[in-house]
């Protein structure tokens, strides 16, 4: 006769088995599960992002949260227009340019714009308000708008290029050199992910009116209409800018920003991501979303699902734009 006690198995329905566990054990299980989920959310995204150069930065503190190859000089494509917009907004602030001012379009100013380039179809002899030119520049990425603004602000292409490079040095963009206001492929025209993050932070700090334009999903001028290439607008209501770009030489590029709640902060926090040299437009969008989500997770912030369950709101950007436009 054995001294072992007979084994007894008690079977409960699943919900009874769960409730029978001590609360301390349940609490420990939840902590472990949460830690595992958090570790996945905070894992460095370096192996997931396909951009040739990228970084994600806390816009409020300037702290870089993650980066890859950030000092490599690359073609910035239409991300160049962030600098063009910066100079336009600065001229408006200084009073040397005015929102309601009408600029005459000269044939020479737009002669270099090719049929395959993004444009708002300006025509010689037209008088166009500066407000519409800035909207076309930021929302539609219009190269003709960039050239017209450059001529009006800088007096000539060379004069505006000098202003761009002077501003870059003043802002601390040590590895950037600008030749074109539009970002069309041009020799000796380059920037870096690091430098573009500096420019993005200064736009955010110096000219919050920029978001009145970059948050708009649609642009219309006369018979011309175009949808903003920042496809995160409308699918993630926390996103309100900044700019996309693409050329064969540059690949698919993007500077994107969002504001979300962060644990312990009374107000929403802003994160900026820069991606250069993505292989496809679809990958650019996917990686931009990953970097924003990872950046906020590393700061203890909410995933967009916690805010809106990822419900698309096509009018969200337009409402933000209308509200911001009243400040212009």
TrEMBL record:
**Per the similarity annotation, which family is this?**
Belongs to the peptidase S11 family.
Q: Where is the Peptidase S11 D-alanyl-D-alanine carboxypeptidase A N-terminal domain?
A: 45-279
Q: What is this protein called?
A: Peptidase M15
Q: Name one Pfam family in it.
A: Peptidase_S11
| TM ranges | none
Q: Which Gene Ontology BP terms does the record give?
A: cell wall organization; peptidoglycan biosynthetic process; proteolysis; regulation of cell shape
Q: Where does substrate bind?
A: 243
Residues forming the catalytic site: 78, 81, 141
Coiled coil stretches, renumbered: none
Keywords of the record, alphabetical order, are: Cell shape, Cell wall biogenesis/degradation, Hydrolase, Peptidoglycan synthesis, Signal
Q: According to the UniProt record, where is the region Disordered?
A: 305-328
Q: Which GO terms describe its molecular function?
A: serine-type D-Ala-D-Ala carboxypeptidase activity
What is the top-level taxon of the source organism? Bacteria
**In which residue ranges is the amino acid composition biased (Basic and acidic residues)?**
310-328
């Amino acid at each position: 006769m054995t001294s072992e006690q007979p084994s007894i198995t008690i079977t409960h329905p699943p919900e009874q088995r769960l409730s029978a566990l001590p609360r301390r054990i349940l609490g420990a299980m939840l902590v472990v599960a949460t830690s595992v989920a958090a570790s996945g959310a905070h894992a460095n995204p370096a192996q997931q992002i396909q951009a040739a150069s990228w970084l994600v930065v806390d816009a409020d503190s300037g702290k870089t949260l993650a980066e890859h190859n950030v000092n490599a000089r690359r073609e910035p494509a239409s991300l160049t227009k962030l600098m063009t917009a910066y100079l336009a907004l600065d001229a408006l602030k200084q009073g040397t340019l005015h929102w309601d001012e009408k600029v005459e379009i000269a044939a020479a100013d737009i002669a270099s714009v090719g049929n395959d380039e993004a444009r708002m179809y300006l025509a010689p002899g037209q008088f166009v308000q500066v407000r519409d030119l800035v909207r076309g520049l930021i929302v539609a990425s219009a190269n003709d708008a960039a050239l017209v603004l450059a001529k009006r602000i800088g007096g000539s292409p060379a004069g505006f290029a000098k202003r761009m490079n002077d501003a870059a040095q003043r802002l601390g963009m040590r590895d950037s050199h600008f030749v074109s206001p539009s970002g069309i492929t041009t020799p000796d025209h380059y920037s870096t992910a690091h430098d573009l993050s500096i420019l993005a932070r200064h736009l955010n700090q110096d000219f919050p009116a920029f978001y009145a334009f970059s948050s708009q999903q649609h642009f219309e001028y006369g018979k011309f209409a175009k949808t903003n290439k920042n496809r995160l607008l409308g699918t993630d209501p926390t996103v309100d800018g900044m700019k996309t770009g693409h050329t064969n030489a540059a690949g698919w590029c993007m500077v994107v920003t969002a504001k979300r709640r962060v644990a312990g902060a009374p107000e929403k926090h802003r994160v900026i991501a820069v991606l250069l040299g993505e292989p496809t437009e679809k990958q650019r969008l996917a990686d931009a979303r990953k970097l924003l989500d990872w950046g906020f997770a590393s700061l203890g912030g909410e995933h967009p699902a916690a805010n809106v369950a990822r419900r698309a709101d096509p009018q969200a950007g337009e409402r933000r734009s209308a509200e911001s436009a009243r400040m212009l």
